[in-house]
Specification:
Blueprint (H helix, E strand, L loop, with lengths): L20 H6 L2 H18 L1
């Protein structure tokens, strides 16, 4: 079994960071869901 180790970081590119208001305009929920679903479909092609 593969174990993933995550080291907490601070800053703009921190994992799990909430979006600021300007980013919410750029990354709409619909757009994010579309990209996520496309990534899942691509993943399924290989595994």
């Amino acid at each position: 079994m593969l174990k993933i180790v995550h080291e907490e970081q601070e800053g703009l590119f921190r994992f799990g960071r909430l979006l600021v208001e300007d980013e919410k305009v750029i990354f709409s929920m619909k757009n994010t869901v579309e990209h996520f679903n496309a990534a899942i479909r691509k993943f399924d092609l290989y595994f």
